[in-house]
Recover the amino acids of this structure.
């Protein structure tokens, strides 16, 4: 177990920052505190991955979009669990 009172600060809550904070919390020893700093009201929707149009469609296979290398079906499972599910038409 790592030293108590350790603290990581991630600046930027876009996709990369949110995933970094997640991985730190998932893989670090207990007792690590993570603070994510983002000025926008939503986490994970940085400029690179933000589409203002809710009708926006993906142009890649869902199997290529998991943020978790050890769980390639994660994005699809997350999408299906959301209200309205996934529209595969």
């Amino acid at each position: 177990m790592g030293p108590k009172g350790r603290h990581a600060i991630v600046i930027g809550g876009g996709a990369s920052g949110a995933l970094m904070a997640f991985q730190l919390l998932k893989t670090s020893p207990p007792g690590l505190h993570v603070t994510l700093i983002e000025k926008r009201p939503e986490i994970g929707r940085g400029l690179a991955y933000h589409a203002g149009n809710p009708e926006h469609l993906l142009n890649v296979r869902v199997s290529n979009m998991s943020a978790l290398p050890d769980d390639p079906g994660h994005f699809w499972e997350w999408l299906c669990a959301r209200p309205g599910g996934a529209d595969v038409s």
Observations:
- The chain is about 25% helix and 10% strand.
- The helical segments are 15-27, 74-81.
- The first strand starts at residue 7 and ends at 11.
- The chain has a mean pLDDT of 79.
